[in-house]
Amino acid sequence: MGKRNVVLLQHGLIDSSHTWISNLPNQSLGFILSDMGYDVWLGNSRGSTYSQYHKTLDWASQRFWQFSWDDMARNDFPATIDFVLNQTGKNKLFYIAHSQGTQIAFANLNSDPILRSKISAMVALAPIAYLGNVKSPLRLLSSVCKDIDFVNTWLGSRGILMLFSLVRFFSTFLCHEKSISFLCSSILYSFVGYDFDNTNTTRFPVYFAHAPAGTSVRNMVHYCQASRFFNPLLYADSIAGKDKGDLNDHFCLISRRQPVIPSHKCSKRTNHLCWKVGMDEAAANIFLTTHDREGFSTVTTTQPWFWEWKKNDSTWSSIRQFTPPRHLDGMSVGSLKRGRFCASLHYALSVPVLLLAHFVIRTWSMSHGKFQAFDFGKEENLLQYKQAVPPVYGLSNIDIPLKLYWGGDDWLSTPIDVCRLLNELPRRSYIRNMYLPYYNHIEFVWGLDAAKIIYPDILDFLQEFQ
């Protein structure tokens, strides 16, 4: 039995284990963990480039590809954990995952206390559970992929986005030239979120020599099912009898759409909070304003200074870890569902903090954007699940040490969806998160400054729970 602590790294969708060592050694999390003395294991999701073997099924057979992340969560994730522990002789390991790697863990851990006991701590980079607010062009496919038979007719029922010779040609040859690497990065960022400054474009030949690594058509259909249009409904609960002096426990969230969190805490009661409504997805990025006109202030978003707060690092100084809203009785829900509650699409308003602090805005999920098992259709669901609709995955039992790292420019794991995830996790001191305003989906593994901003924090988190 070795003395080194074990770390299992699990990649995201259509990626492979190579993503953890794609950058230079001092910038790749896999190498950094190894240099720090960890016993590092790299996992590969079923159907990816390095995981296309099976004990009984042939890679070219249709049956091999009849899986989604649902199967990875139920079968592959626990099998991988047990394999690594058996090989190392350890009882526990650290689990670090990106994107889909976090999703399969969330789907399993909530209902498996034995597996939870085998994980010392988990790090979730660009975490995914809900996908109802995806901004990527992939969302456009959600309207046509509801019927798996229809998708199979057009795309087949095997693998998709595999690293075949044509893909390898485009990735290693075309993306190699500097003049064309901009085109490659533009295509990539259109799916994961834009940030040209934090990517080493000279590494594109390395990145795209191993990605996309492929997955099954059914897996992509499952993601389409999860990203169907999400239309949240807002309601507020009155804080009856709330002591005005005790405001620091609450977040002020006002929006006609699902709030974006974290928002500024209600700690400076002499100031006022300003919020944006209906503009992009930053519907509730609340920030302090110095304008005080008899307790209220109205400004238009066409004024240049209005947007300067986003460029100012001090704006984020008062962001706190997200606290789930409280369940309180009081105000009628109907009054907030009717009419234009906050503002028009062209204005940002501010109101006294004390007024905002007396309302905690929550979101009510409609029938879309659920974190649930694969939807086969009513008849097949009855056979598979003994119910007409797929079972929904919970999150409230995941009480292991957990830290989530999420980005404001992530078009796949969007802030709105991550906030929904955070809201359903248990409230524990060892469940934390770090919000990076300008990070997109892929920068958590490929970003130039990830080794300076994120990875040292990950090392500190792992050290705490050794």
TrEMBL record:
User: Which Pfam families does the record associate with it?
Assistant: Abhydrolase_1 (PF00561)
Q: What is this protein called?
A: AB hydrolase-1 domain-containing protein
- Residue ranges of domain AB hydrolase-1 in the record: 5-127
Q: Which controlled-vocabulary keywords does the entry list?
A: Glycoprotein, Hydrolase, Lipid degradation, Lipid metabolism, Signal
**For this protein, what is any one GO molecular function term?**
hydrolase activity
Q: Which GO terms describe its biological process?
A: lipid catabolic process
Q: Does the keyword Heme belong to this entry?
A: no
Q: Which family does it belong to?
A: Belongs to the AB hydrolase superfamily. Lipase family.
Source organism superkingdom: Eukaryota
* InterPro entries, A to Z: AB_hydrolase_1 (IPR000073), AB_hydrolase_fold (IPR029058)
**Keyword Glycosyltransferase on entry:** no
